[in-house]
Each structure stands twice: as C-alpha cells, then as structure tokens.
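Appendix B. Chain record.
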Amino acid sequence: IFAALADPGAHTDGGADVPPPAEYRTRLYTRIVQLLATLPPPLVLCIEDVQWAATSSIDLLRYLFATEPVILPSLMILSSREERLPGFPGRQIMLAELSLPEVEEMLAGMAHHGTLGQALAQVYRDTGGNPFYIEEIVNYLRDGDLHSSPSHGVPPTVKGVLAARFDRLEPLPRRLLQAAAVIGAHFTLPQLRALNRRGNEAKMEVLQHGGFILSLGAGAYMFRHAITCEAAYESLLKRERLALHRRIGRLLEKQEAAPALLAYHFRRAQVYPAAFRYSLSAARHCQASGSWVE
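Structure tokens predicted for this chain:
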C-alpha cells in the first residue's frame, strides 16, 4: 500500500522539499482514493477502535465519509467506544449493554451445564450487562471454583478481576504477561526471550487458554483486550517498568524500530537523551509523511 502511495517526486527526509500540509494532504487523499478504486466493487471498509486513531487518520476518514461519497458503490463501517464521532455522516448505531435474558444466554454458553445460572442476577447487577466484564467474571470463577457465587469476594471492577486472575497464574506465565504489557499491545515470543524471560510456546498457550492473549502465528501475539494490557502493566512495580522499558528500548534500537516507538520506551524508562533524540527523528518522519498534527 505504501509503495502504491509513494510519490517519486517527494522527499521523505523531512527536508525543505516537503510540500505544504494542504498540498500534501490533497495529494495523499487523491492517491488513496485511486488505490481503493482499483479494488473490485463493492468496497466494504471496516475499521475498529477508531477512538485510538491519530488526528491525521480521523481527517482522512472524514474525507472518505464525505456527504458525497468519493468511492461508489461502497460501505464504510467504523466502531468506536466514543458516544459520538463528530464530522461523520451516515447512520449511527448505538450498542446497548446486554439485557438480563441476553446475559443468561451468554452465561449458558460459557459455563458448564449452566452452573452459573443461580448467580445470574448477581452477575447482571455487578456488570451492568457489559459483555467483557461478564466474560472475565466467568473466567475468574473458572480459575477457582466454578460453583462459587460472584458475591463471594469477586473484585468490583474489570481491572480488579483481571488483577486477581493474574495473581492466580504461575510465576513464569505471569512474568511473561507483564513483560508483554510493557512491550505493547502486539509482541513476539523472540522479544520476550530477548528480555531474559524464559518464554516458550507451552507458557504462551497457558495465557491463550486463559483468554489473556491471542496468537497471530509465527511467534507473534497480541493482547485480547486493551484493558488486559493496561491491568498487566499496572501490576508491575515502577522500578520493574523502568528496567523493562530500558531493555526493550535497547532491543528495539538494535532492530532499527520506528523512532516514535523508541522515543516512547526511552521516555518511559527515563532515559531522556535517547528519548529526545528519537522524538526529533519521529517528528521529522511525521512531517515527511504528512502527519503534521502528530
């Protein structure tokens, strides 16, 4: 995609030949539309978690979602945790929390032989019908005693339930999960091994079976949910986070990772000279790629 978007006449070193923002944006949008128009119709474009999108990406989506569609026929679907996405025409569908009957159906599908049926009202009251929270409570009870009642010692928040589940893991899988959270939402087994974490496929399967991570194949993984990554990260002591960020930064530096990623890890590690150096490099890259706001 980036090769198809490349402009042979444009410099990418952040020098003086970088076109003004408006000109670059027009050129970029035109090329993206041309590229999408080469795909077999109808075009269905689905983008999840738009709340994480950078400002420049939101501007591009607004252009594609213009009142007069630039690509026909097409269907564009966005999902977001935000209540509103200003500037986007079209139909907006608000997904409500699960109703009591829907929670009952979900529990029946997850628990063995409906053993959580008696706890239905308690689960619904505690979770407010939030599917992810419901799933984590069921996993929490499965980790211990499935016949226990949610009213007996279940933490009152999603992160609390996740933290309690982390505590029940064996030491090595727990340390792997924490190290992965410092790396980020996406990580690899070689990266964990490079951090002197004795990671192996068997331990990663434990984390997959627990619903914490997903395998992407070829030794690559991702956290199943952003809250899981946040909770694992917050379970580390500050000095442990600093040390891991420093080691990850040095590792990614050898791999010539993106400057913005290196700047993030060195800033978190409080290695400020390296963070400053890579921040400047990341800014030049953003300028050259047209991400002027970033």
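Further analysis of this model is presented in Appendix C.
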